Please model this.
Amino acid sequence: MIEYAVTGIENDISEVWLEGRYAILERFDEYDGQLGEPTHFQPNTDNRVRFEVHTDGEAVWDHEIDDFRWFPVQLGPFHPRGGRLTVEFRTDALGETSCNWAAWADLKLVECM
Model:
C-alpha cells in the first residue's frame, strides 16, 4: 500500500479528480521511465492482481487484471475536507506472486474550482 496525504488544498477547490494508469510488469526494471508496454513473463500461470484506491479511509474503486498492459484510470470527484485528502493505492496479488510487479504510474490530482 502507498498512502499520500495531500495537504494545502485551497478552500475554493471544491473537488479533485485522480488520473493515472496501472499495470502488471514483467520485471521491476521494466519501469525505467519509458513506461512502454509490459510483456508476459510466465504464460499459463495465474497472474491476477487487484488494484484498489481508497480516499480518506473509504474504498472508492477496485479493478482486477491478469493482462500485461497499461490501463488508464480516472476517478472522482473527491471533496477535500479542511484542505486535506488522503489517497491510498493498494495492490493485492491474487494468483502467482513470483516475478510480477504491480505498478501505478503518471498519478496526478486534477483540481476543479
